Write the structure tokens for this entry.
Amino acid sequence: MSEELSQIEQQAQAELAKKADFESLAQWKNSYLGKSGSVTRFSRGLGALPPEERPQAGQRINALREVLETAYADAEARIKATSRATNLEAERIDVSLPGRQPEVGGLHLTTQVLRQTFEIFATLGFQIWESREVETDDYNFGLLNFAPDHPARDMQDTFYVEMPPNAPKVVLRTHTSPGQIHAMRRYAPQPLRVLLPGKCYRSEQVTSRSEFMFHQFEFLAVGQTITMSDLKGTLHTFAEQMFGKGTEVRLRPSFFPFTEPSAELDVSCFLCKGKGCRVCKSSGWLEIGGCGMVHPNVLANGGYDPMKFSGFAGGFGPERIAMLKYDIDDIRLFHSGDLRFLRQFG
């Protein structure tokens, strides 16, 4: 038996030295140390030996098992080290290669227009005032001089929030104008100049020219000597800095419940310089948005005495401005997530 065990040891060591992966190493272990392995079979055969030979044979078998288990552990460590070195070689980075330029995102076109607007109005002494998007019906309509039966209050025009019975009506604001009341009540009776940007919501069919969610910025100035000429001077400064030097403005009579008198702002077409083109529909003018002098009722609701104070206000859409400025014909592109569109302005 001693000679057979020596042969098994030599054979096992020789085979083990050739193993280079864990799969073949596992097969080797099963062949020699497993339940049906060579060393295990010798252990089961001890009962057939004479009693006086069994202790010595058992010691020899146990010694062989310990030698092979140690050799197996050494081989396993060797294969692990080799595998790690191979992986490191495969993952090696060639530091002499030129670096990869990381892809950096850009500002959304709406954000770009809003930031440019912030800079323009900051030079005129306006501060940014952020107001909430969910408003009571009173702030969104009543305090802004909307009549109780005004069509804008209808559900087909406004998103109403479901509230408990007898609770005040709550809406998703349809314009940034409710912020005027919040700002005036915060600063009255001190003069103020604020710019109110944010999202607005209207129950409208989505088309190439209208969205149910859009951005708007509102500007408001209140003081004791503010006149319509101050409004026009502010609009002219804004138009020249937004659309380019030499841009002209004109005010057309209009009507808004919260301003009196009210006007629509047009700017001279910066593409054709007033000569007439497809964008301005050959009129030479582009419509930007509404404005006017703050209605006395709105001033009073904001905490100002309309006999002593006056003010002007206006609300424009940055998407509308961007569409005119960059000749974009579909407002749905702004929120489409289409990178082909966004990368043009990134």
